[in-house]
């Protein structure tokens, strides 16, 4: 039986990745999203606006990361384009390109 949440050795895994790694990646995405959005706003409108947020994070980007992970998975374990075959390693570059394009 394939469970979504598995707790082993004090770590909680969501499908196949540790949940603390996903949380850290979502914080990094939220921070990078804040910087990119504010730099474009600074260059176009000449103002630095953080959407009235106290911390420099835009959590809509982290929600997008979680949604992509739930829907698509990773390049090694895809969920949406999953195909049972023995030629998975030869299809990995194609899957990586599809994952990057859809992301």
Report on the structure:
The protein has three helices and three strands. β2 and β3 form a beta hairpin. A three-stranded antiparallel sheet has the order 1-2-3. By secondary structure, it is mainly alpha-helical.
Low-confidence stretches: none
Helix coverage percent: 40-55%
End-to-end Cα distance = 29 Å
Mind describing the biggest β-sheet? Answer: 3 strands, antiparallel
Total E-strand runs: 3
Number of helices: 3
β-strand amount: 5-15%
Mean pLDDT figure: 77
Q: Give me the strand/helix succession.
A: EEEHHH
Structural class per helix/strand content?
Answer: mainly alpha
Strand arrangement within the widest β-sheet reads 1-2-3
Which geometry do the CA atoms define? flat
Global Rg: 17 Å
Topology, please?
Blueprint: E1 5-8, E2 11-14, E3 17-18, H1 19-45, H2 59-72, H3 88-102
Antiparallel strand pairs: 1-2, 2-3
Helix pairs in contact: 1-2
Task: Describe the structure concisely.
This protein has 3 helices and 3 strands; from the N terminus they run βββααα.
Tags for this entry?
three-stranded antiparallel beta sheet, 3 strands, 103 residues, flat, 10% strand
């Amino acid at each position: 039986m394939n469970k979504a949440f598995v707790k082993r050795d004090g770590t909680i895994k969501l499908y196949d990745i540790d949940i603390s790694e996903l949380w850290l990646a979502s914080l990094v995405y939220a921070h990078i999203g804040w910087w990119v959005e504010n730099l474009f706003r600074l260059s176009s409108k000449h103002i630095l606006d953080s959407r009235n947020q106290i911390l420099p994070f835009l959590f809509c980007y982290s929600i997008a990361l979680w949604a992509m992970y739930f829907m698509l998975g990773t390049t090694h374990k895809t969920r949406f384009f999953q195909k049972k075959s023995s030629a998975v390693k030869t299809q990995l570059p194609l899957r990586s390109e599809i994952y990057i394009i859809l992301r």
